[in-house]
Structures are given as C-alpha cells and as structure tokens.
Design brief:
The chain is α/β, with parallel strands linked by helices. Helix content is 30%, strand content 20%.
Length: 326
C-alpha cells in the first residue's frame, strides 16, 4: 500500500455531512430459503431499494440522509413511508400515480443460483420526469448518491437523475455514483450509454468486479473520468480504491456469516461515504466500509442495522468477535 493521499475536498467542508440519495423503493417479497416460485407456499414482505438502503445505512451510522423518489397514494405507499420514517431517513418522495414496484427473491444454496423476478412496470417512480426537479432537495446537502438502477428505469427517472447530477455538480456537492448494474433491466450495451453521463460527473465511482467489463476495465473508467476516486469491490476477495494520482489501496474482506447477504454492497457504499465525507482517507474509508458490509451480513433485511460504534468495534483487533460485550 502506498502512502495516504492528501486530504480530499470533503475534509475541508465546514458543514456536517448530509447526503441525498435518489431511487425507487420496492416491495420485496422473500421466499423461505431454498424455495422456488413454482412451489410457493408463503412470502415475507420487506421494504427495499438500493438508494434507500444507502440512505438508511447512512442514517444508522449517524450521517444526515434524505431520499428523493416517488411513492403511490394508498396503503402500500403509506407502508413504505412508515418504514422509511423508522430508518431515520428524511422522506422527500413525491406522491405520484401508479403502484409500488415489487420483486420476488429466491435465496438458494450453491450450486443453485438465487433468482430475482421483478414486477415493477407502471410504478410511481417511473412517472417521474425532469419537470419534478426541486432544488430544495439539494439544499444544505454535501453529497448526492445515485446508482445505475435509477438510470435504467425509463427516460423520465433518468432525466430527473441527470438534472439532479448537473445541479449538484454546479453547487459543488460530492457526487457518488454506484454502477450497480442490473442485467434484468438493461443490456450491457444499453447500460454503457445510460451510465456514461453519471460516470463523467462523479467524484466517487463504486463498481463491482462483475460490472467493470461494461466499460472495458478500470483503466477505461479512469480514462472516462481522470479526477474520480474509483472504488472496486471484489466480494469475498475484498475491495480496492484507485486514486486520481495513481495510488491503489487494498482492503481484504472481513469473514462473516448470516442471513443478510442482500444489501451488503449498499451498506459498503454508505459506510465508505460516511467515513470519506468526514475526512477519512481512502484506506481508512475502505476499512470502515468492509466492517459495515460484514455486519450487514449478520442481520436479515436489506438495510444495515449497526451504529458507527458497532462498525468500529468490528475493526478493532482487541475484541474477540462473537464474544458478548460484558
């Protein structure tokens, strides 16, 4: 590992970090472990959505977080708003016609792959357009976080995302973009075109190893955005940060287990943001993010259930993991 880079712009901000995320909330319907939809017996309802997961994790860690979106009127919209309120996230979602999108999750053991089936056509989120832009969403924020999912859900939500990105760039916010490609929503060829404007504007780029090939590799992403800090995740093999000045910081993953595999990437991104926006260098932010992702795995649901102190405890070498705090 090379020496730590000089402080980044976020460390110079006099304001406490406050992050806006933008994306769709979904009704997640989870089958019992190893069951298939073809033999469905019962389902568990959870509130999910990548950018909402990031906002909830930020709030749990102590960073002010708001979530911009759209939700329908009626009981399912009210259900989602209640969940969001309980996470401590500021709910900025507009009430729009349509429905609450949903998806089914089959969680399987190897070698069978888990399966997701989307049912999100006609959702309230897909009715959003650039005309719904409200500059108040960005007021007093220090960062904006968007993922490729929101750029893959139709021209209206994509246009609003790009307007938010442009406005955030104009007022000097840190822009965080998680590629988070969903192959059931866009082909790789379509994705490259859809994600390019966000890649160009981003200060932080999160990209999983499985998605790097969409752009031709890390060096190709660097060529598209010479100034961004690029964070590449490798699952159980850990993560690394590539700085604009050519340094690379490597972070091993922390061994973990439990029912919360889904949402680990969102917890990782949120924890990195939480640390980075407080002035931590990339190596420190990676270590904090790795600990948060490990903790996310230990609890069910899509959102991180851990405080900053709990994440720091996982980082500490003095405590024996698994022993109760006495």
């Amino acid at each position: 590992m090379t020496d730590a880079p000089s402080p980044h712009p976020a460390s110079q901000s006099p304001r406490a970090p406050s992050v806006l995320t933008y994306g769709e909330a979904l009704l997640k319907l989870v089958l019992p472990p190893a069951e298939r939809l073809e033999t469905l017996s019962h389902l568990e309802a959870q509130c999910a959505g990548s950018e909402l997961n990031v906002a909830a994790a930020l709030a749990a860690l102590g960073t002010n977080a708001a979530w911009g979106s759209a939700l329908p009127a009626g009981p399912l919209g009210a259900w989602a708003r209640r969940h969001i309120r309980l996470t401590g996230v500021q709910d900025l979602a507009l009430e729009k016609p349509g429905r609450l999108g949903s998806f089914y999750l089959e969680d399987h053991y190897a070698p069978r792959h888990s399966r997701v089936v989307y049912d999100r056509t006609g959702s309230a989120f897909t009715t959003l357009t650039a005309d719904d832009f409200n500059p108040a969403w960005l007021a007093w924020r220090t960062a904006l976080h968007i993922s490729g999912i929101s750029l893959a859900l139709g021209s209206g939500p994509r246009e609003l995302a790009l307007k938010l990105l442009g406005a955030a760039k104009d007022i000097g916010l840190t822009i965080s973009f998680d590629v988070n490609h969903r192959r059931l929503l866009l082909s790789e060829k379509e994705a490259q075109k859809a994600y390019m404007p966000a890649l160009w504007m981003a200060d932080l780029i999160f990209v999983a190893e499985r998605d790097v090939g969409i752009f031709g590799g890390i060096q190709a992403i660097r060529a598209l955005n010479p100034a961004a800090l690029i964070i590449q995740t490798h699952g159980a093999a850990g993560s690394e940060a590539h700085t604009p000045d050519g340094q690379t910081f490597i972070q091993p993953a922390i061994a973990t287990g439990g029912p919360g595999r889904v949402g680990r990437g969102d917890a990782f991104a949120a924890a990195f943001l939480h640390a980075y926006l407080r002035g931590e260098n990339p190596a420190e932010a990676l270590a904090f993010a790795a600990a948060a992702a490990a903790l996310k795995t230990t609890t069910p649901g899509d959102q991180l259930q851990a405080s900053e102190n709990e994440v720091q405890a996982v980082q500490g070498a003095a405590r024996s993991l698994g022993e109760p705090i006495r």
